[in-house]
Amino acid sequence: MPQLFDARPSAFAIAPDGTRIAYQVAGEGPPLLLLSGQSNSHRWWDPVRAGFEGAHRTITMDHRGTGASDKPDRLYRTEEMADDALAVLDAVGVERAHVYGTSMGGRIAQWLAARHRERVRGLVLGCTSPGGRHAVKRGDDVGASLGAADPRAALNALLSLMYTPEWLASHRGPFTTVGDPGMPPFARRRHLAASNRHDAWDVLPSIAAPTLVVHGTDDLLNPTANAPLLAGRIPGARLELIPGARHAYFEEFADVATPLVLDFLAGVPGDR
Questions:
Q1: What per-residue confidence (pLDDT) applies to 235?
Q2: Angle 158-113-199 (CA atoms, 0-180°, nearest 5)?
Q3: Which of 99, 35, 92, 107 lies closest to 66 in space, CA to CA?
């Protein structure tokens, strides 16, 4: 089983609205900002982070409402969370970084790449969606399973959307992709609302960074059909589908996904 890191020492960036955003830095090489999914802290990346640290200086962060970051009880927006990510890059002293966002982190990365083009060198969007009316929504049955009144049933439903049965049969956890256990309920609701309201369709054509879109073919949590929508909307984007993978493709299929991302980033020019 992959090694899970203990909670990393955090430093803090200050977002434009004054919210403290915790971030963590490790590794050496060209900077790579890793953005985690909805209701998750930097621990989302624990099982696979070491795979990037040999080639990159990795930067993770705790989204507002998670981990060691502040947890304001007010409206959250993916656009604002992109500003949080920009504040982290500023605090670390990184002028340009590769950005790899998965799930809601991919939504945040879309805004970062569209609104701050000069700060994003290469872009990877994993298991994510453009949002809005153009996005392909998950099935009603999926939503119902995640909203089950029994917490154990809801967790099992989420795990089955993240991983294949074969993986779950041989991996007993702990799972770092099923939500920050210390997150207050109001912040979970704020994250869900931010993700649901996301709509970057109109700005996607303005993304200039070389872009890789990655998705599992069996992802029902964020339907696979969103991947070609993103790739077709972002100029020059490359699409890669990982056969048999579900939402947490980057962990279960790390032997495919990590080299795929590393090879793509290695081919991104240093100056544009």
A1: 98
A2: 55
A3: 35
